[in-house]
Design a protein that fits this description.
This protein has about 400 residues and is α/β, with parallel strands linked by helices. It has helices at about 10-25, 65-70, 125, 135-145, 165-180, 210-220, 310-330, 365-380, 385-395; strands spanning about 5-10, 35-40, 45, 60-65, 75, 80-85, 90-95, 100-105, 105-110, 115, 125-130, 155-160, 190-195, 220-225, 230, 235-240, 245, 250, 255, 275, 280, 285-290, 295, 340-345, 350-355, 360-365. The longest helix is centred in the last third of the chain and has 20 residues, at about 310-330.
């Protein structure tokens, strides 16, 4: 019976974990059939999650079945319900509701994250999201449906609840999307509501003047220092007592790691991510490696740690897959390291802003940065088209080059 490396999740971290494991086995000359790489996910599809703020989000996906077949990755359709680290097994539920147990010799948890939805009155009933393809597609349908509703101030007003990275990108896109749907002469308002006292609080001071300039240019309003207290069918209410009339409220409230992390022994951070060692191993579950949004790992030796981002998911996925295979083969492990850090924030028709380093020094703005953002979004983060390109790109020594 072959040994098995089992990957949970087909996002950026899961995909690159599987490919990196396949690459390591091939480099080691592992006999065919001696080690199986299997990946469990609801569908053999990579959602291009960093693009879901854009129009036509239902097209933001890349099929993976052919790539899995060509690289020797077995795809298992289903959702993981239980992880039993003591028995080295998981329980999987498929689309029909049937359950099955799958054993493993090494497990890579790359189950991603989900939008954080606090207990705010009306949030579940009345707010849209762009966290997953189905939610973003529902928002797209709703926006187009607005053209069939009576003209009113609320119809033309969109409130984005959350002024972080994704909230800014969505808000910058919305004026153009709304005018395309309701007409160029329609009265459109886009308002970002952010509980912090500054826009993009996690982005720091570096790019903030550029963001402020772009939002002013696009006519996007902000309400800063204003926590959301309630959402209803007619709009949103803030802690300042303001009620903003709107038929479209989009909740961008941050992320939390997959609930599966709670089934893994060991320490977790405030976002539910498992604290892993430098090899991305779960300290209390030695046969498990963790990558992407389910892991919090040191990226360097000066205290920086992974963020819930595509950039860190791709690299930590490569490292986890390579290490899981190397560990199974009794080979030395390669400590995860990701010294470079860049941020490229889309600012709609105004352009974009590119920063470098954890202090986010601005390197490029406007149309030039926008061209780079398109290259990242439309080319660099998509999976390679061939087996050879995929295995070459799965080298954990590679970093996303912009």
């Amino acid at each position: 019976m072959p040994q098995r490396i089992l990957v949970i999740g087909a996002g950026f971290a899961g995909l690159w974990s599987a490919l990196a494991a396949a690459r390591r086995l091939e480099l080691a000359g592992t006999p065919r059939g001696a080690v199986e790489i299997a990946l469990v996910a609801p569908e053999p599809m990579l959602t291009i999650r960093p693009r879901l703020y854009q129009a036509e989000p239902d097209t933001m996906a890349a099929p993976l079945a052919k790539l899995f077949e060509e690289t020797g990755v077995r795809y298992i359709q289903g959702t993981v319900e239980t992880i039993r680290t003591d028995a080295a097994e998981i329980d999987v539920v498929d689309s029909s509701g049937a359950r099955a147990s799958v054993g493993y010799d090494r497990l890579i948890l790359a189950a991603g994250s989900a939008l954080f939805r606090p207990d705010i009155p009306g949030l579940a009933q009345f707010a849209f999201s762009v966290d997953q393809r189905d939610g973003a597609a529902a928002l797209e349908v709703h926006l187009h449906d607005l053209s069939h509703r009576p003209v009113s101030a609320a119809r033309g007003t969109v409130v984005v609840a959350g002024g972080g990275f994704t909230g800014i990108e969505l808000a910058a896109e919305l004026p153009g999307r709304m005018h395309a749907i309701l007409g160029k002469d329609a009265d459109i308002r886009v308002i970002i509501v952010e509980r912090a006292d500054a826009i993009g609080p996690e982005l720091g001071e570096g790019p903030r003047p550029v963001i402020d300039e772009a939002l002013r240019n696009l006519g996007v309003e902000t309400r800063l220092g204003a926590a959301v207290t309630a959402i209803d069918a007619n709009g949103l209410t803030t802690a300042t007592g303001e009620h903003i009339a709107s038929e479209t409220v989009v909740w961008i409230g941050g992320l939390r790691a997959s609930a599966l992390t709670a089934q893994v022994p060991g320490e977790r951070d405030a976002l539910g991510r498992i604290r892993v060692d430098r090899n991305l191993r779960a300290p209390a579950a030695p046969n498990m490696f963790v990558a992407g949004d389910t892991a919090v790992a040191a990226t360097d030796d000066v205290g920086n740690q992974t963020l819930m981002s595509c950039q860190h998911a791709m690299m930590s996925g490569r490292a986890a897959g390579d290490n899981a295979a190397a560990d199974l083969l009794g080979r030395p492990l390669r400590p995860y390291s990701q010294q470079g850090y860049v941020t490229c924030l889309d600012l709609g028709p105004w352009g974009a802003v590119l920063t470098q380093g954890w202090d986010r020094k601005v390197l490029m703005t406007g149309a030039e940065a926008k061209a780079l953002k398109r290259q990242i979004n439309e080319v660099l983060i998509y999976p390679p088209a061939t087996r050879e390109a995929a295995l070459a790109a799965a080298d954990p020594a590679m970093e996303l080059s912009v």
